Input
Amino acid sequence: MRADTQKKRVYDAEFFVRSILESLARADVPTFDFYGSSLIIPLERKFGDLDSIQRYIDAVLGLNWVHDMWPERTILPVRVRRRAGRRFAHYEPATHTFAIPDYATSSGWAMREIVILHELSHHLSRHGEVHGAEFASTFLHLVREVMGPEVGLLLTDSYTRHGVIFGALTNA
Output
């Protein structure tokens, strides 16, 4: 496994987008001023329990385009479990398990779509760079296609602001 050289940049970029999504969730109209243009941002999905996260993951992995891009990864069963710690969600590659702090162990901060897509990106990434260019590209692609192109645009801009290295995805 390679060194995780851009972990902080990836998390900073994601946290920036999460703060925008949180702010827009409280607004009457979820519009965001993006360099002088008003973007209507789709609301982020929030999950009430681990079972709903499991169903969401299964649904995303069942999408035809996801299977076409990552056929060897989508056939692996992914499971969700409660994480005892409060501060982090994580992916366990040996067992294809997402460990998520839920409402019983935390404020439920991880029970949201962008966090689940982050963990799913770990599962789909092939080459062992935990937060490297492949991961960042996978995460961006999932966010753009699942959450919407407007959220993908916010993440692309945030990646650029925070110096995240990413690129186009290939099926290789």
User: Anything to note?
Assistant: The radius of gyration is 16 Å. The first strand starts at residue 31 and ends at 34. The beta strands are 31-34, 37-40, 79-82, 90-92, 97-100.
